[in-house]
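Revision sheet: C-alpha cells.
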Amino acid sequence: MSNTLTKDKTSTKEGYKKTKLGWIPEGWETPEISDVFNFLRTSSFSRNQLNYKEESEIYYIHYGDIHATYKTPILDFEKIQTVPRLNDDVTLPANVDYLKDGDVIIADASEDYEGIGTAIELQNTNKKKVISGLHTFALRDREGKTVQGFRTYIFKNPLVKKALKTIATGSKVFGISKSNVQNFKIVLPPLPEQHKIAQILSTWDKAIALQEQLITQKQALKKGLMQDLLTGKKRFPGFEEEWSTPIINEVFNFIKTTSFSRAQLNYSDKNQIYYIHYGDIHSKYKKPILDLEETQEIPKLNSDIKLPNSIQYLKNGDVIIADASEDYNGVGKAIELQNVNEKKVISGLHTFALRDKKDLTTSGFRAYIFKNPLVKKALKTIATGSKVYGISKGNVQKFQIVLPSIEEQKKIASVLSNFDTEIEKLITHKESLIQQKQGLMQQLLSGEKRVKI
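Predicted:
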C-alpha cells in the first residue's frame, strides 16, 4: 500500500522534544485527558440484562466486547451487528448520557496486561440510543482539540500505552481509576496531522475489512459446496455408484484415550507427548485436518506425568471426535491428524479416537464424514444433557455414517482441501496486513514517521 510519508531520524532527536511520556515531535502536545475530553456518565448492567433482538431500543457498550468482539478501532454501527441491547424491562437512570459519533469508550479493566486502556471510537450512531457500560470510561471531545477518526488512536500510541500500565492496579484483573485517568497525559499532534494519520490508518482498516469479507465469502462457498458434496446432492462426472451406510464399528477401531486436566499440560518443547484436548477441537483447530507440522497450538503433557502401560499413540489418518460440547451444534465435531510422523500423540478427555480398520475410508476425507449434514443431524438425536451435550461410546459404535466409494472420497477431499488452502492464504494475507498496519501505526503515533500535510 502506498502513502506519502517521510521518515525523520530520531537518533539525535533533532526536531523532537523530551516529555514525561518520551520523545515526541516539536509542535506536538501532551495535555491531560481532562483538558481534552469530558467524562460522560456510564451505566452498569450485566450480560443477563442484554439481548440482540432488533426491537430493543437501547444499545449497550460492554467492556468485554471492547476486548473480544470489536476487532477494529472504529465501531461503525452500519457495519457491526454484534452490539447488544438492553432488555426492555431494564429501567435507566434519569440522568443517562447517550453517546454520539466521535465519542470514545475505554475499557477500564482487563485480565490481560496488554489490554489496559483498550479503546474504540463510535461512528454512524445516527439516531440510535447508545450507552456506555460496566468497567468503561466514555469520553467526548470538549473543545475541538481532536479530529474524528483519530481519537481512538490516542490510546494506541505506544508511549501512552506504556504509561497507562504504570497507573494500572491489580493482580489477576488490572484496572485503571477515573481519578488517575483524568490527570493522565496523552500525546496530540496538530489537527491537520491528526486528520492525515487517521486517513492513512483508515485506508489500512478498509484493506483489512475487504480481506475479511473475502474470507467470509470463501468460507460460505466452501460450506455450501461441502454440504452438497457430502450429501450427494452434487456429484462429480463419472461417479454413479450408490453410497454405503455402514455403522462406525464396521469401519473404525476405537483407540484408547486418556484423561488429563489443563493443569497437567504445557507448551514446552522439552516435553515429547502431544495431547489432543476436546476443548481445543472446539475452539482452536478450525480446519478438519490437524497438521502437526503446521499447528503450534497443541499442548503437551507435563514431564512428570506417568502414562498407563496400555497407552495407544495416534498416527496419520486417525480421527478424533469431541464427545461433549456446550453448543448443541458442536456435538461430534471431528478432526483428522496429518504429519504425525514420529511424534507421540494421545487423545484425551471427552474424545473418541478412531482408526480405519478395513481401508474403507481415505486420508483427508475422514473428518468430513462427521461434517455431513445428514450425519450431524443424526448425531444430535443420540446426544444427552442440557447445559453440556454428550454422546456415549455405546451409541457411537452403532451409529450409521455415509460413505462414497474410495475414489469419490478422494475427489471430494481434494476439492475441499483446495478451498481450505485458498482460505488459509487469504487469512495469512489478512494477518500480514494487520502486522504491517500495527508497525506503521506505532511509527505514526509516536512521531517516528511524519506525514506530509
